[in-house]
Amino acid sequence: MHIGGLNPCNNVFLAPMAGVTDLPMRELAVELGAGMAVGEMQSGDLSLAHSRKTTQRQRHSIRAGLRSVQIVGYNPQQLAEAASFNADLGADIIDINMGCPAKKVCRRSAGSALLADEALVGRILETVVTAVDVPVTVKIRTGTDPEHRNGVTIARIAENAGIQMLTVHGRTRADRFKGQAEYQTIAEIVRAVTIPVIANGDIDSAKKAQRILTLTGAAGVMIGRAAQGQLWLPGAIASALAAGDERARNPALSEQLRLHSDHLVRLNDFHGDHLGPRIARKHQAWLLDSLTAQQAISADDARAWRQTFNRLESANEQFDCLRKLTDALMSGPPVTAPAPQMSVAA
What domain range includes position 284? Predict the structure, then answer.
């Protein structure tokens, strides 16, 4: 598939997730086979462009692949200036967030709140596309609520404005992340436009990815929350789709733990000794959720390991805890962490 003149190596992408898809996560996802990893959303307000949080989100490396920068806001000129600013910093793609359902975003009439104002959507997209020479993409939801699914109209507005790719999450703004994603609206959007449409929402396996691609006719899929604690998943799904295999092959347990250890090292190097260990806690929790789903560890033991890890203040202590968990999982017998005694599921 093509995004303007750009050619991702495959059609399975890592979704932008604020507070999650930082540079270490994007690097690992691309190294493990994701076709593209979109950066965390950045405010379209350039008065915040030099804040610590935003400058961290602006960081990129060759290892992270195509540089897709997502911006969020509601003012067309402000967003155009933010797009130009990021293009000058080296962005390959500008992605506009019209899909975030978070209250703190929507109450500023940004994110998925924009879907209720189709005229404003058109002005924003036209202004941003005119402002930059790189491809502009947009991420939306299927509508404002189940009674007002205007995704097809928004998609046509986007194509007419010069948008080069559209990602659609299969829920409305009102749905937030409740219930199950629906894909019929995505299929209708695919039929309504000629630009690539990427399906997003609850895609957690190669089998489901293939089913959704067949159902919708989408050009690709975007993996979000399912990649938390499983950074290898987008690449594994891409490999399975390329081979015509309905099963994404999980790395061996030892490899999953090695990858997670590598991730923690990169998190600490990137965020520093203070923030690094704190950010690592949620990634450790997601890893334990994944291990529980794989029946490598019991839910009770995962909870105890998580509580132990969350009390640790330094990266060295966290690495030591992860080594103990790895030893326990690899050897099988119960291992006592610096918390209540835990046993690994057989």
Answer: 253-331
133 token code pair: 């020479």
Catalytic residue among 9, 100, 106, 321: 100
Is residue 179 situated within a structural domain? yes
Q: Domain check: are 239 and 260 in the same one?
A: no
Torsion 289-290-291-294 (CA) sign: positive
161 and 289 belong to one structural domain: no
The gap from C-alpha 270 to its chain's centroid, in whole angstroms, comes to: 18
Task: Quick: pLDDT tens for 210-259.
Answer: 999 999 999 999 999 999 999 999 999 999 999 998 888 889 999 999 99
pLDDT per residue as tens digits for the range 314-328? 999 999 999 999 999
**What's the order of all strands across the beta sheet hosting 197-200?**
36-37, 12-14, 220-223, 197-200, 165-169, 136-141, 93-98, 68-72, 42-43
Determine the pLDDT at residue 337.
52
Q: Higher model confidence: residue 179 or residue 281?
A: 281
Is residue 319 in some structural domain? Answer: yes
Which of 243, 268, 286 represents a domain boundary (last residue)?
243
- Is 35 in the same domain as 165? yes
Active-site annotation holds for 100: yes
